[in-house]
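Dear all,

This email documents one entry for the complex benchmark we are building for the journal club exercise. For each entry we list the sequence lines for every component of the assembly. Then comes the predicted three-dimensional structure of the complex as a token string, followed by one or two observations. Please use this as the template for your own entries, and keep the labels exactly as they appear.
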Amino acid sequence: MQTQPVMLVEDNDFDRGLTCFVFDQEHVLNDVVLSRNGEEAVDYLFGDGDSAESGLLPALVILDLNMPGIGGIDVLKRIRADQRTSRVPVVVFTSSDDAGDRAASFAEGATDFIIKSGSHRKFADAVRKMVAEWLTVNCSKSKRGDDAD
Amino acid sequence: MEKRSSTDRLDKLREKIEQLRTGGDEFGAGVEYDDVVELVQELETYQAELLQANEDLRETHEKLERVGRKYFDLYDLAPVGYLTLNRDGLITGANLSAAGLLEMLRGRLVGRLLSGFIHAESRSDYLHLLQEIRSDGDPASSDVRLTATGDELRYAKLNISPAPESFEMGNELWVTLTDISDLKRLEKERQDLNRSLGRYSRRLEASNRELEAFSYSVSHDLRAPLRSVGGFAEALREEAGEKLDERTRGYLDRIVEASGHMQQIVDGLLSLSRLTRADLRRTRVDLAEHARKVVAVLQEQEPERSVTFLIPNRLIVEGDNNMLQVALDNLISNAWKFTRECDVARIELGETSQAGHQVIYMRDNGMGFDARHAEKIFEPFQQAHRQDKGNGIGVGLAIVRRVINRHGGRIWAEGQKGLGTTISFTLSEGTKE
């Protein structure tokens, strides 16, 4: 049985680098699908590409909000609108502390809304928590044996 | 009557003279001497009376002349222009001041329409006024612009009322014109000044907003690379630290420490910036309740410290709950920090009143500050104790001040080096930032 990956949608090179570093420390880097913007994420999830063929939908999406082109909220809407992905947990991970962004995220079905801390230690802690969350989701799915919706 | 009797008398005298003349011959024979004497006496009396009458007349004439002069002073030289109009608005009379205002010789004014002297921009106002007074007869007034030969703008307050019925010219209209050109000019200058002041303040506001947005986006954009520097420097220290000698490991420590410090600065800048942008919503807030929560967190972080806190059961203020919490966090953390060296640390939150305003204060018996810097300690990144390490970045009191300013309140510090600090603030006086 294949592990369902964690998907990171992040356009900021620094933040993607630091997040991947934490993934690496947690030994899960091999199970990460990286999207450098909204287009790449949509393409992976709904294009004729990887996920459709392999059936490897992410078990958790870590989603940045402010991205050029297709923004985080748009990606979230697409995920929720598609039957295949509508139940995938999506954690919004953003530097925005705007109440409107928070409300919009939950309105579109975000699982959680986490603000990126300025401190690298707190930032890393938040990523570790999300990794733990992903492991929990994967684990419970393996037990139930329904590795793909 | 007087006139009649004096004429009668004159007639009688003439008659007597005639009789005397016709009664005798050319040599006067037949004329009684006594009659002549009597007549002469009568004539002399009459002459004296005439002289007296003449004197009276002269005096009356002088009086009249004085009245005339007074009338001239009062009417013609009045500081207000007086005009009389007939029902059609034609000028029937004017004083000199009116002639001056209308810039025409008085003699030429009569028979002209007053509307001809009123500038096109005010003419309809004037005609409306004229129409109204013809219909309801109530006095009315309006500010009108007058035509002028020169460049300057001339304005007058025009009052119009029907002449009193008792007055001979009962059918006429009385008009007063008061020169308000200077007033109008000053008013316009004031308006211009206000407009340019408004323009400047809008420009200032705009550039403030721009600066604010700039500082926000710069601090915002700095966060990701800064996290990266701190995160990877720390990773390097963890993974390769043992291979490095003490000196090079020290370099790495410095990078980690400096990036952590900078992360705090950037976070402080962002908090300041957020406080400026956030909407302020006033509600009743219990500062005491929140203070107890902050104290609990601090005591949990440093359980070895023994600090006496004096916090009232309730301390109700009107203000924005979120902002006041931020302010209180910073005030208590500051007091906590600066009483670290005290044997018996004491921190007090309380309220008093000053000139009818509620004053909240936070008092500690910590290291205090140099009273000469009482204003400076509220500036961002100005630390009272720069020499002490680990005291944060000096943005705390700047944040507190911004919160107080947003509320339209006032904040001040009292203290002495080594003798503690009292920070006091109000939430409702002064001007908003």
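Observations: The longest helix of chain B spans residues 181-240. The domain at 280-433 of chain B is CATH 3.30.565.10 (Heat Shock Protein 90).
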